[in-house]
Every structure is written in structure tokens, then in C-alpha cells.
Design brief:
The protein has helices at 18-23, 48-59, 72-88, 176-195, 215-222, 259-266, 286-290, 319-338, 389-393, 412-419, and strands at 91-92, 109-118, 121-135, 146-152, 202-207, 231-237, 247-251, 273-277, 296-300, 363-364, 367-369, 379-384, 400-404, 407-408, 427-434, 439-446, 448-449. By secondary structure, it is of the alpha+beta class.
Length: 452
């Protein structure tokens, strides 16, 4: 996930061969022209929890070196995903002219060049790829209406750009939660629909270039496999591997008139504590689809102390929680894909505001915002970074920041702007409301330098 939306490596695209797939735990045969390859991975003999864990562990393994866009590790991750598409028997996307049928891994890969803006210099040109596959629908009358399920599979790799632990230098940032978890969730949902298709066809997608600014999803919506007017909804998964206290944040509630009903009914037997955000925009790939007037849902289990750090590893994933997110998503997808009428798109009220030019000057506070805090006036914390200025000053999870350095804080955007007006080493007062009684507490914080 990229909360900062604001050197090029030559790429040799790696095509999946049966031996490579087998080495990555894929037991299906790689073959061309069949309607459905042998799919031991897709069989009921292997529980979803096992497959989700295996997929996360593989994507977040050292062999892919953090999957940074434009690197061989990213290409190898794409090849692994293509092999998983083949094992699940996904079809090529409708616009892809090919003789390959299900099981031809190369048919899912859609190459493009991601252009990353660089301040004060020429842009980075990064050859990379998205992946797209298709699960056919069962109702011929709805064959031209598609539900899209997607996640980004790239992460930071060895780069310190965007990292919150630059002191670790070129140490691999494997991104188990961000976003091997979302990538695995998409495969799990695809596995269920490959076994039991819905009335409408479903497009399965994995995007590259998200960490550089949603580049992969933006490219796909500009060069779509089907017209965006034929996409009835897009469901996005980004950081769904750290479910805590049953709380799941879902963006996009107000992007369709029917969306609240869809989610409420889908959650009846799951029992998650949903924190619903109306906005269709935000720091992940659903935004690219919403900007094309496609209703969206974005599933997110919130940020944590390992976000964009080398410590975001697979052993910290809550696999059982990820399965519950998949359970909810499957029910929501089926409700949308099987409904007689498509969703009614609506423009959602935006909570996104521009950042001040001074933001990003390197001042470090060490807070972990609660991105699903709802209607609180202020910025609520889901935690604080160990050893950071916020923890040293006595801030804790649940605190609601209402004033920072003498300036009122009404939301996370106010906080981002005001933090950007300070420098490392500045001493600031921070006012929080704490506990059920909203006790007003003033704490003194000395800001540090990010990574210092």
C-alpha cells in the first residue's frame, strides 16, 4: 500500500515452465489448449488457510527480493502468479488474441513500462507487467458485465525509497502484508469461483507499480481487457494479513447505492467489525477504477509497526484472519455477480485533500494512524512505533490526537500537513483525548529524523 501518493534495472521477462512452477509448490501441469488443467492446488483436499500461507510465504520469500517494480524479483513473482493462474484454470483475458487456453501461463502476463516521476531528474522507466485472467460466467445474458478482483504484488525490495527504516539500507523488505497478503487473498477468491462460477464473468488481476503511484492499475484502466463501462465493480485487497480484534476497514461504501446492503448481508455470518469508509479514492489500486466510474470496495486490516519495513515478514501474518476476509469478499462478490441488475454507481464524498508543500521534510513522529477511525474529529492511533518519539513521549494505541504543535488536528490530513511544518529536533506539544472519558492530556514530543 502506498500512503505517499504524491535506478532502472534491465528486465528479462521470465515465462513459467513446468519445472519452475513445480519448484514453487505448483503441482498442476502446464499445458496449452485445455479447458481446465489438473488442479491439485484448487482441490478441496488443501484448505484455503494452507494455500494462503503458502502463497504469502512464497511471494514474501528472499528469492523474490521484495518484488520491487522493474527488478528480476518482480518478474519472477509475476511468473509465479502466472503459474498459479494456470493451476486454477483461468482463461486469458477477453482482449488477448492468443491460441493459448487455460494453463498457458504466458497468456496472463501483460507487459508495460512503468514511468516513475523523479524529483529533479528524468523519470525512471521500469519495464514490468500486470497479470489478468478470466473466470467465465454461467449466464450468457450477463457475459459482457464483469466483476474485477485485484491486488498489487510489488513491494519495496532493497530500495530505501518509501521505506520507513532507511537505516537498514539495502536489506530486503519482503512485504508479507504489503502486499503478499492481498495477492494471496485474490488467488483464494479466484480458487473458490473457479470451482463454483458466478453468473457474471470475473476478471482476476495482479498489478505492479503500486508503490510508485498506482502505475499498474492506472495502466490497466487506460488499456483495459474489457471496456471499463462493462466493469460492474472492482474489489481490491491491500494489506489484509494482520486482522486485529476482528476489525476490517472497507473503503468504497458510497460508490454504489447498493453497496451498504451488499456488505451488511455478506458479513451476517462472518461477524467482522466493519469500519466503513465512503470514499472511493485512497492509497491503493481501487482508486484507478473508481476514477473510471466503477463502483469499488477496498479491504484493509490497517497499518502496523512493520509497514514499509524489513520486519514485514510472513511469520507475522494472521492467516485465519485473512481467510475471514476472503470469506466476506466471496459473499460480496457473489451478491454483486449474481444480482439481476448491476450496481448503481455514485460519486462518493471525498476525504482526500492536498498535502502542503512542506510535508515530507523528514520529521519523524512514529505514530500508526487508525485508518478506519470513522467520524472521530482528530487522528486516532492504532499504535506507536517502538522506540519512536511518540512512544517515548507516552502516546499509546487508542489516543485521539486533536492538536499538534498548537495547530488543531481534525483528521489524518491535518496531521500530515502540520507534521510537515516541523523539522527534526523540534520540540512540540501534542494534545490527545484518551480513554472512554476522553481525558485531555498534553504530552511533549521531540521529533527525530526518519531513520535516525
Amino acid at each position: 500500500m502506498n500512503f505517499s501518493l504524491v535506478p532502472t534495472v534491465p528486465v528479462k521477462l521470465v515465462f513459467v515452465r513446468c519445472a519452475f512452477v513445480a519448484a514453487l509448490l505448483l503441482s498442476a501441469a502446464c499445458r496449452t489448449g485445455s479447458n481446465r488443467p489438473t488442479d491439485l492446488i484448487g482441490s478441496t483436499a488443501i484448505p484455503d488457510s494452507v494455500m494462503i500461507r503458502r502463497d504469502i510465504e512464497t511471494l514474501a520469500s528472499e528469492q523474490f527480493e521484495g518484488r520491487r517494480t522493474g527488478t528480476p524479483g518482480n518478474d519472477s513473482a509475476a511468473a509465479f502468479l502466472a503459474g498459479r493462474y494456470a493451476a486454477l484454470g483461468l482463461l486469458p483475458a477477453p482482449d488477448l488474441a492468443t491460441n493459448c487456453g487455460a494453463g498457458c501461463a504466458a497468456a496472463y502476463i501483460r507487459r508495460f513500462t512503468a514511468t516513475e516521476p523523479v524529483r529533479g531528474g528524468p523519470p525512471n522507466q521500469m519495464p514490468t507487467q500486470n497479470l489478468v485472467g478470466l473466470i467465465a460466467g454461467t449466464d450468457p445474458q450477463l457475459r459482457n458485465e464483469y466483476v474485477v478482483i485485484g491486488a498489487h504484488f510489488d513491494h519495496l525490495g532493497r530500495s530505501t525509497v518509501g521505506a520507513l527504516d532507511p537505516e537498514h539500507g539495502s536489506e530486503i523488505r519482503n512485504g508479507a502484508d504489503d502486499n503478499a497478503s492481498g495477492s494471496a487473498a485474490v488467488l483464494a477468491v479466484a480458487r473458490r469461483f473457479a470451482k463454483s462460477p458466478a453468473k457474471r464473468p470475473i476478471l482476476i488481476a495482479h498489478f505492479s507499480g503500486e508503490e510508485e503511484g498506482l502505475l499498474g492499475s492506472a495502466y490497466l484502466t487506460e488499456h483495459p481487457p474489457v471496456p471499463t463501462t462493462q466493469m460492474v465493480a472492482m474489489l481490491n485487497f491491500d494489506m489484509v494479513g494482520r486482522l486485529r480484534d476482528d476489525k476490517l476497514i472497507v473503503y468504497g461504501l458510497a460508490t454504489a447505492k447498493e453497496m451498504e446492503s451488499v456488505l451488511t448481508k455478506a458479513n451476517e455470518t462472518i461477524g467482522l467489525k466493519l469500519s466503513l469508509v465512503p470514499d472511493g479514492t485512497g492509497p491503493s489500486d481501487h482508486s484507478s477504477f473508481y476514477l473510471k466510474d466503477v463502483p469499488v470496495l477496498h479491504f484493509f486490516t490497517d497499518v502496523h509497526a512493520d509497514y514499509h519495513r524489513a520486519s514485514d515478514d510472513a511469520d507475522k501474518i494472521n492467516v485465519a484472519g485473512a481467510v475471514r476476509v476472503v470469506d466476506l469478499a466471496e459473499r460480496a462478490v457473489r451478491a454483486i455477480a449474481d444480482a439481476p441488475n448491476r450496481l448503481t454507481f455514485t460519486k462518493a464524498p471525498s476525504t482526500t485533500v492536498s498535502r502542503s508543500p512542506s510535508a515530507g521534510n523528514g520529521a519523524y513522529f512514529g505514530s500508526i494512524p487508525d485508518m478506519g477511525a470513522g467520524d472521530d474529529t482528530g487522528m486516532r492511533l492504532s499504535g506507536v512505533s517502538p522506540g519512536g518519539p511518540a512512544e517515548k513521549a507516552g502516546l499509546m494505541a487508542g489516543d485521539l490526537i486533536v492538536d499538534f504543535g498548537g495547530k488543531p488536528v481534525k483528521n489524518i490530513y491535518d496531521y500530515t500537513d502540520v507534521l510537515g511544518s516541523f523539522k527534526p529536533g523540534d520540540a512540540v506539544s501534542v494534545v490527545v483525548l484518551r480513554g472512554a472519558n476522553k481525558e485531555r492530556i498534553t504530552l511533549q514530543v521531540t521529533l527525530s529524523r526518519r531513520g535516525g
